[in-house]
Design goal:
82% of the residues lie in helices and 0% in strands. By secondary structure, it is mainly α.
């Protein structure tokens, strides 16, 4: 019980970060599971199964606050789900010994990036006046495909890759970027989960840990989204 409570607290904190920044739930949670001794494929599969529920809750909350650009979601989510499925199958097909250094490197780089984003909040404020020109489909599709693959293969990466790419384009406000990224991650989580279920046995995944991460994430998702929406309103007044 204490072990599940710890996982729940980590899932709660990870979802707060993810809902506010559009990144880090997978990277934070997967890092914890790896440190607890889980194999990379099992850790990533566990997190992505939990993300099906947390992403649905987070996306719904963002939709209610008007933070979602459905065109971006549509063009990124489907390629992202395909990339995530392939990444999950690839990670499941290699040995834990071979996967550990690759996954650890990806998570380390993602962690450094997320930390930098925390230390530089003013970057988002500079982008509150976007150009209004929509990103082309041929840019969003490959971005979603790559981010989805890295998300499943590394245990995280959809947000850290997709969010800064959309922000740097200067075509969307930060709240739209974060809301669209979080909403599209639902299909990515579904694609990755299907890939892990193909490559792994369901018995290898601790459903208790999945439940702890899921419940904690569901509790945190609306809180994080409401806080971000309030911050966005303050920045535009």
């Amino acid at each position: 019980m204490r072990r599940l409570l710890v996982f729940g607290l980590i899932g709660f904190a990870a979802q707060l970060i993810d809902g506010a920044l559009g990144m880090a739930y997978g990277a934070t949670s997967t890092t914890l599971l790896l440190s607890a001794g889980l194999a990379p494929a099992v850790a990533s599969g566990t997190v992505h199964l939990a993300e099906i529920g947390t992403c649905l809750a987070s996306g719904t909350a963002h939709w209610r606050f008007g933070n979602v650009d459905w065109r971006v979601v549509r063009l990124m989510a489907v390629p992202g789900a395909i990339g995530a499925f392939v990444g999950a199958v690839v990670l499941s097909s290699i040995s834990a010994e071979a996967a550990e250094p690759v996954t650890a490197t990806i998570l380390f780089l993602l962690g450094v990036y997320v930390l930098v984003r925390f230390l530089r909040p003013a970057d988002a404020a500079k982008l509150e006046k976007p150009t209004g020109r929509p990103l082309r489909w041929w840019a969003l599709g490959p971005l979603g495909l790559f981010a989805g693959f890295m998300d499943a293969a590394g245990g995280g990466g959809w947000g850290p890759i997709g969010t800064p790419a959309l922000l740097s384009s200067g075509t969307m406000t930060p709240r739209k970027v974060i809301g669209s990224t979080d909403t599209s991650e639902f299909l990515v989580a579904v694609g990755a989960s299907l890939g892990f279920l193909v490559g792994l046995s369901l018995s290898e995944i601790d459903l208790g840990v999945v439940g702890a991460l899921l419940v904690a994430g569901l509790l945190a998702a609306p809180i994080a989204t409401a806080r971000h929406a309030a911050q966005a309103r303050q920045m535009t007044t």
